[in-house]
Amino acid sequence: MGRKWNNIKEKKASKDANTSRIYAKFGREIYVAANQGEPDPEANQNLKFVLERAKTYNVPKAIIERAIEKAKGGSEENYDELRYEGFGPNGTMLIVDALTNNVNRTASEVRAAFNKNGGNMGVSGSVAYMFDATAVIGVEGKTEEEALEILMEADVDVRDIIEEEGTVIVYAEPDQFHAVQEAFQQAGITEFAVAELTMLAQNELALDHDVQFEFEKLVDAIEDLEDVQQVYHNVELS
Fold first, then answer.
1. Spatial separation of the C-alpha atoms in residues 199 and 231, rounded to whole Å
2. What b-and-e string marks burial along 20-40, b requiring 16 or more CB atoms within 10 Å of the CB?
């Protein structure tokens, strides 16, 4: 699964280079999570997960607090969680997750981004079956053997564990996300290189330079949309 970790690193690097955009997206995601349950992460697992993800992207405390306070204040701003599926050049596949207060606007914008950049929207289920929902947690300062021992002692099941460039990456079922994190936290690890619930492609495509350039233009156009939170795909980034 090393290639998949490379894709996640590329995605993080891209987001780190667009801090204002990613902070705005996290602000919306934190508000929605806090508004749908208790505004306390210890009583709201979804909010806790979003805050843990935000930490790996260095989202400022002020943005987090503002979003939570907005939820506490009883804002009537409501968002729908939407998922779109589609195709890009050379058989590439994409899944697009969005949070929106205007479903028609978002659907129109996502469709236009696909159409203007060499892709096309698919129907629900046309792509998702080729992806697996996966928890991905990365830690530094431990070997693969040490990390595996920590997880075994905590009786946590994982799909795979690899060590790459000084980072141990754990792939697990989504419902094991908190169990993996808590096992590491009990072992004294408080910082995570990555903490994501993602959609990993079962099979990845390698594209030649020109096609990858066109594909990345499509992904960038979709990610630039205000309502889009996540874009997953089946391309090996290089």
1. 9
2. eebbebbbbbbbbbbbeeebe
Residues 6+ away with beta carbon under 8 Å from 124? 83, 85
For residue 110, give every residue at least 6 positions away whose Cβ sits within 8 Å of its Cβ, in sequence order, or none.
Answer: 84, 86, 96, 98, 121, 222, 225, 228
Is residue 90, in this structure, part of any structural domain at all? yes
* H-helix or E-strand spanning residue 24: helix 19-36
Question: Which CATH number goes with the domain that contains 88?
Answer: 3.30.70.980
Question: Does residue 211 sit in the same domain as residue 124?
Answer: yes
Paired tokens of 130: 């080729």
For residue 123, pLDDT beyond 90: yes
Global pTM reads 0.88
Q: How many CA atoms lie within 13 A of 201 on its CB side?
A: 23
- The total number of structural domains in the chain stands at 3
* Amino acid present at 121: M
pLDDT digits (tens, 9 = 90+) for 73-112: 877 788 999 999 999 999 899 999 999 999 999 999 999 9
Tokens 């053997």, residue located: 145
Q: How far is CA 68 from the centre of its chain?
A: 20
Asked whether residue 180 carries a pLDDT value surpassing 80, the answer given is yes
Is residue 238 a part of any domain in this protein? no
